[in-house]
Amino acid sequence: MNTTFSHLFYLRKSKAKPDSGILYFRITVNGKRAVTTTGREVPLSLWNPASGKATGNSDQAKAINRFLSKVENDIYHAHQRLLDKGEIFSSKDIIDTYLGKDKKKEAQERMLLDIFQEHNDRVNRLVGKDFAAGTAERYRTAKKHVEGYIKKEYKSSDIPVQDVNHKFITGFEYYLKTERNCAHNSAIKYITNFKKIIRIALLNEWIIKDPFKNWKGKLKVVDREFLTEGELQALISKEIKNERLGLIKDIFTFSCFTGLSYAEVKKLSEKEVVIGIDGKRWIKTKRTKTKTRCSVPILPVAEAILEKYSSHPQVSEKRLLPIFSNQKTNAYIKEVADLCGINKNLTFHLARHTFATTVTLSNGVPIESVSKMLGHKNLQTTQHYAKILDKKVSDDMAILKDRLNSKNFWGKA
């Protein structure tokens, strides 16, 4: 696309101040002109119309010329942006781009849910590379919640991204907690997912101000549930004749003794079972969530479960254990809990908590070793489980107290 392009700086005399002029610039594209002001006031005595610059070496003249250089650079940048689009443009288009009017127009045209969908499409294409399938699912759910909120509060199928403000965010949080019945932490996580979409809009200059600037979303500290030693023993010893529930019980128990998440158990393959430094079998795999390496020696209970299902028709080199979908697994686990007399809201992830607490930390395994087996990136994450140590200290001290009492250590008659 061939265009001729030039620009010119000049002064227009000020009626209010006869000795000064207002600095303008003129853009010419293919012989057609457009003019706008810079808003800068310049003394007539310093201006050279021939060069279109201030004359002299005074600080004021240097400041004016620095300003001119910046404006000139911005004009060239605006011109290049229009060239990059490959569309026909006018001198006015260059001025509008320089003034940022094109971005405002683009922002008005950018709809919130469209941006969200574009982001989710990219995430879906990168599942297995940069994102886990669970991450993609959370973004899909977050978009669905935003869509529901817009329909309820704005009576619309979508809104311009620039309409998102602090009121929108706080209203969305209230909607999640009331209409969607989300717990506090779940609501904050969905809003955090949504925050990424707003950050994309900011980086692309579709919006100017960050609506999240004054929003503070803090997660509440939640006690992580786990099976006690007695509950774990009840689970292991319970004989379940129903094949479906028996399988679920075994897979859940396997996670209790390996610390693997549902996704990691599902993808566990023969190549991830290796001979460790001690000459025994270990599971060495990458965490699905963080991609960090985790190394877990296979305890006898877990080894027995692998052996039990080694001949199962769904088991192969690529899949060492048969497993239902995540949704069905979590539903069936609750049935197993009822059969075992465990009065807790069992989910598959509770097995990972049980491994961290009841199986390892409470039995004296150092927290550094537990962190490595869980594949945590830092020790602070593992320390969430360390509260079990307080319980162990309490139990140990209770035993000590009984022993001292039996010895009449206190000297009481």
Tell me about this structure.
This protein is mainly alpha-helical. It has 3 domains: 5-99, no CATH class; 109-203; 229-396, Intergrase catalytic core (hpI Integrase, Chain A), CATH 1.10.443. The protein has helices at residues 59-85, 91-99, 101-109, 112-125, 133-154, 166-178, 184-203, 229-237, 243-256, 262-267, 300-308, 326-340, 348-360, 367-374, 379-382, 387-406; strands at residues 5-13, 20-29, 32-43, 47-48, 53-54, 273-275, 281-286, 293-297. A 3-stranded antiparallel sheet has the order 1-2-3, with helices on one face. Strands 6-7-8 form a 3-stranded antiparallel sheet. α5 crosses α7 (184-203). The model has no long low-confidence stretch (mean pLDDT 88). GO terms for molecular function: DNA binding.
SSE string, helices as H and strands as E: EEEEEHHHHHHHHHHEEEHHHHHH
- Percent of residues in helices comes to 40-55%
The CATH architecture category of the largest domain equals Orthogonal Bundle
Tally of separate domains? 3
GO molecular function: DNA binding
Keywords: DNA recombination, DNA-binding
Family: Belongs to the 'phage' integrase family.
Protein name: Recombinase
Show the helix and strand layout.
Layout: E1 5-13, E2 20-29, E3 32-43, E4 47-48, E5 53-54, H1 59-85, H2 91-99, H3 101-109, H4 112-125, H5 133-154, H6 166-178, H7 184-203, H8 229-237, H9 243-256, H10 262-267, E6 273-275, E7 281-286, E8 293-297, H11 300-308, H12 326-340, H13 348-360, H14 367-374, H15 379-382, H16 387-406
Antiparallel strand pairs: 1-2, 2-3, 4-5, 6-7, 7-8
Domain Tyr recombinase: 222-399
Keywords: DNA recombination, DNA-binding
Pfam family, one: Phage_integrase
